[in-house]
Amino acid sequence: MVEGHVTISNLEKVYESGDERTKAIDDLSLEVPSGEFLSVVGPSGCGKSTLLYLVAGFLEESTGTIAVDEQPIEGPGTDRGVVFQDYALFPWRTVMGNVTYGLEQDGVPKEQRRATAQEFIDMMDLDGFEDKYPKELSGGMKQRVALARTLAYDPKILLMDEPFGALDQPLRELLQDHLLEIWRDVEKTVMFITHDVEEAVYLSERVMIMTRHPGTKKTTIEIDVDRTQDREDIIMSDAYTETKNQVWQSLREETQPEAQL
Amino acid sequence: MDVSNKLAVDRSDAINVGKSIYSLVIVLVLWEIVTQLGMVHYYFLPPLSDIIVRFYEMTLDGTLVHHGYLTVRRALVGLVIACVFGILVGVLSARNRVASWFWDPIIEVGYPVPVIALVPVFLFWFGTGDLAKIILVAIGCFWPVAINVRNATRDVDENLIWSARMMGTSDRQLLRKVIVPASAPGIISGIQIALPISLIITFVFEMVAGGGGLGHIEIQGVRSFDSVQVYATLIAIMILGFILDRALRLIRFRILSWT
Amino acid sequence: MSYADFRLTDLEETLPAPFQRFVWFVFEWIPLLIAAGFWEFASGTFVPSAILPPPSEVAYVTWELLATGDVISHLQISLYRVGVGLALSISIGVLLGVGMARSDPVEDFFEVFLALIYPIPKAALVPLAILWLGVGTETAILIVFLACLLPIVLNSYNAAQNVDQNLIWSAQMMGMPSWKIPLKVVIPATIPSILTGIRQAIPIAFIALVSAELIASNEGVGFEILRYSEVGAYTQMFAVLVIISAAAFFAVRGYEWLERKVVRWT
């Protein structure tokens, strides 16, 4: 499978409001090979969400290019699926209605899209909740619906914006493991924004650390952890601890620049 | 969880009304006693029993039903016309820059105009018939509907629009599939605000211009010094207002069961 | 604003700052000119100008009425009615709302009456007010009062019921006696909602005023509108309409301005 390769070159994003020009992203270049799980960490306000929304096509780059499989992107497209931190589920649609939405847009016949949606609903342990509205669900369930909704229409690239940020620790861990399992099955490229170093190192194959505002790539760190093990074994392993410290150090240099001087 | 909550609310409502109705009973009984003893002039406050008897008679001989129908027809037809145009203009000026440029200042200036003051001129332009009343109701209700629809449509959560876009929703579908459902609560609120306005305009028009309707027979009661008729008509107006308000709430509850 | 990127960027950069704002202001209000222009054109072509007087003439007569002072006395009367009616509904409405929210007996007593008044469009109470108070100022005041009462009661009731319990606890913790709490904690915490209720009530007050004056008055702007239309002086009628609309518009704007000045902490 050679799809879902993201190439970002010399990306720059400037926000203009009135006379003020704020540079959010400055000269950022990055390759995300197809099938890779990449996390992006950085100090708050460094533009990591902006980067994600640029790749999603919601925002327009000021200069530079973003390409998927060598094809420059033009606005949002079904090859990239975003999972928002606040879920962004359609409140007037049931769980089933939300998960089938993308397939409906794609013109999949009704029976078939219900069957496909059911598959992802089951995968997310949401069976029995098909006819519930989002307001009737807890935060963790909403996020699973959002994930199912995005997976259902089968984008090549998953763009996740701190998807577990609003959840409590046990639920987070559960969903992290769930995500890993799915990622192994579906072979998608993942760009995962988080501010949580442990989450980044636990989940991804590679972490990109961003500099302080205006954000750009500081460095990327490969994570070489044997992910066939259980969570306990992974977090006890030396490889995990070492990489975690390395990422943490690097990030700390950005959050405490004064200490450096 | 939600169902049991709703039940609890309903039950506490019932208890509340049951508990608090005593004050109404006291006042009604006092009303009857004071008027029967002749402590208040009959013209100001006739005995409650007389009013109820009259209300019963006027309902039975079809007076209230007929005039109530005239009033409701005028108010609702005007309201529906206002909703069609108000929703159209509201959505358009929230989603389209040129429409927003054009309509925003007009809404800004038109909204505070007490449209009811146009009753005399509409009487002159269109006469005492239904047409004048319906058009004026439509104009009066257009502004609150338009302004509420515009605000609701403008404030649709951007993430919802984005997530629809990424799932392949075209611009044209976006309106029907995301924007209208997402702003439905605001749209219905606008209609709920417009409903009493439609009734006010209809009543005032009927009082000033005649042409039948509850407002007309109410003011007739004043002019012929028949205060019992005024009170009896008011009971009908109260029931009518209550039914319309409840109906709209029911529709809201049905359509917006997801909120 | 949504049309911010509609800006004529080139024009902006070439013009000096005060001019830019002026150009922008004019640009924003052009639609009204278009509407007025259409009206001006329609009057005398599609529709006889006796039926639909052109805006230029209305504007002139508006100025004339204001300059000669013909309308001023009526405007004063109307504003007095709105003012007194609003003041009554605010003072009684806030007391009632807060009282009902914080005391069950009060709520039990008044709730049923409010529930009965709620569905009645207040203009329908004008005939009843005529029975009691006759034609004139008292009737108009009563209608304004009744029309504005409910939004104020409802807003202050909801707010007073939802006062943050932590605020009350911290007042108690600091030794405030319980009889002082309504005055010192509940009402201040409720003020933002009360102010919202008043803002909602102002346009309603003007609608109620005009309704009452059309049906039951011998003076005031509503009566003037009716009188001018009965003698066929439609230009004057529109002029009075412009004046009362402007009064309603500036009442809301003035109130919002005052609110921002006075209540800084919201």
Strand content of chain A: 15-25%
Percent strand of chain B equals: under 5%
- Main sheet: strand order of chain A: 6-7-8-3-9-10
Could you say what the CATH architecture of the largest domain in chain B is? Orthogonal Bundle
Number of domains of chain B: 2
CATH topology of the largest domain in chain B: MetI-like fold
Given this structure, which CATH class of the largest domain in chain B is correct? Mainly Alpha
Radius of gyration of chain A: 19 Å
The most extensive interface between chains reads: B-C, 58 and 59 residues
* CATH superfamily membership of the largest domain in chain A: P-loop containing nucleotide triphosphate hydrolases
The class by helix and strand makeup of chain B works out as mainly alpha
Low-confidence stretches of chain A: none
Q: Helical segment tally of chain A?
A: 9
The main pleated sheet of chain B reads as: none
**H-E order of chain B:** HHHHHHHHHH
- Termini separation of chain B comes to 15 Å
The CATH topology of the largest domain in chain A is: Rossmann fold
Number of strands of chain B: 0
Radius of gyration of chain B: 23 Å
Shape summary of chain A: globular
Short description:
The complex is a heterotrimer of chains A (261), B (259) and C (266). Chain A is α/β, with parallel strands linked by helices.
